[in-house]
Amino acid sequence: MTETRCPSCKSTKVTLYMGGQFGKYICKNCGYVGNLILEEVRSKPKEKASSKFLLGYSLLFSFLFLAFFGIVTFLIPTPFFTRMTPKTFFDYGYWILTSALFGTYIAFYCYNKKAQAKCTVTAAGGGIFGFLGFGCAVCNKLLLLLFGAVGVLTYIEPIKPLLGLAGTALLGYAVYQQGRNVF
What we know:
The protein is mainly alpha-helical. It has two domains: 2-41; 51-182. It contains five helices and five strands; from the N terminus they run E-E-E-E-E-H-H-H-H-H. A hairpin with an 8-residue loop joins strand 2 and strand 3. The chain is elongated, with a radius of gyration of 27 Å.
């Protein structure tokens, strides 16, 4: 669908001048008369997101992340290894919230495929902080390498709820931004 616009005032009230005998156009808004006009090709309006598609993929990805994060952090018991710090209420809460928000973000991304760079970075940061919020700090080899066992227990373990809160907030913002692009 093409849309004609006036080159002077950008109005869409452009018609053929004198029935188009001379190949000129007239703008009914500003009175411009001339051969030159602007034509825009408009695509069809974007269809609304299918709620069944988004809900299905959101639940699928959320449960996959829930299972993966739960097994890796030993919130779901497995015979492969044990958790070295006790599980708390916050661990379970941030585990569920992080998995649900991350799954929803991935579902929006699969539907839209046009993620803004800030959304992707925010979602990655939220996932990392969320994982640090519910994961076993002593079991995290990178944290042990950076801070040592005493440093992890002294500095990281007490702020785990704040890390989980920061991760949940970042993921919530990323889901909100990506959802604005979908709906």
